Amino acid sequence: MIIDKHRAEAGARRISEAALLHWAFFGGAIGTFAASRLVRHKTRKQPFAMQMMTLLVLELILLALWVLGLLGPLIAAALA
């Protein structure tokens, strides 16, 4: 996110929204969200902001389930 912001300011080639969302999907939603707020980048752009918020909520739910020790049993039950 920060790299894309710098590229935008420099008029250089940008990182696609799809690529940013893919990185966020594979475990980086918390960091991507924090970076977007830190540098104020893509905070109002829709539908990107809503998709990013959805990934963030999903990641936080999974993190909470893992911390509470509930994620393992859910995965085991789903695979049984």
UniProtKB/TrEMBL annotation:
Presence of the UniProt keyword Transmembrane in the record: yes
InterPro entries: DUF1294
TM stretches of this protein: 20-39, 60-79
Keyword annotations: Membrane, Transmembrane, Transmembrane helix
Superkingdom of the source species: Bacteria
Record bears the keyword Transmembrane helix: yes
One Pfam family in the UniProt entry: DUF1294
Protein name: Cold-shock protein
Organism ancestry: Bacteria, Pseudomonadati, Pseudomonadota, Alphaproteobacteria, Sphingomonadales
